[in-house]
């Protein structure tokens, strides 16, 4: 979501800038789904799928607490 095909289809390793753009998809998902009533649980599952218990995930750096 909101990531260009040149990044999605790149056969080689992503640059730091490209990876940063790739990570934005979870934040965009959060923003878009926040506009839909009664989608809070779906929004959170979709947007937080790259979060880690130690807080080192993205897009929000959420941790176990």
From TrEMBL:
GO process annotations (BP) = cyclic nucleotide catabolic process
Do you know which PROSITE patterns this protein is assigned to?
HD_GYP
GO molecular function list: cyclic-nucleotide phosphodiesterase activity
Tell me which InterPro entries the record gives. HD_GYP_dom
Q: Which residues form the HD-GYP domain?
A: 1-65
Query: Which PANTHER family does this UniProt record tie to the protein?
Result: 3'3'-CGAMP-SPECIFIC PHOSPHODIESTERASE 1 (PTHR43155:SF1), CYCLIC DI-GMP PHOSPHODIESTERASE PA4108-RELATED (PTHR43155)
Q: What's the protein here called?
A: HD-GYP domain-containing protein
Give the species.
[Bacteroides] pectinophilus ATCC 43243
């Amino acid at each position: 979501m909101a990531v260009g095909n040149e990044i999605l289809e790149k056969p080689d390793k992503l640059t730091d800038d490209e990876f940063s753009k790739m990570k934005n998809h979870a934040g965009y998902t959060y923003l878009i789904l926040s506009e839909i009533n009664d989608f809070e649980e779906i929004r959170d599952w979709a947007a937080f799928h790259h979060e880690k218990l130690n807080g080192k995930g993205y897009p929000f750096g959420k941790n176990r607490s």
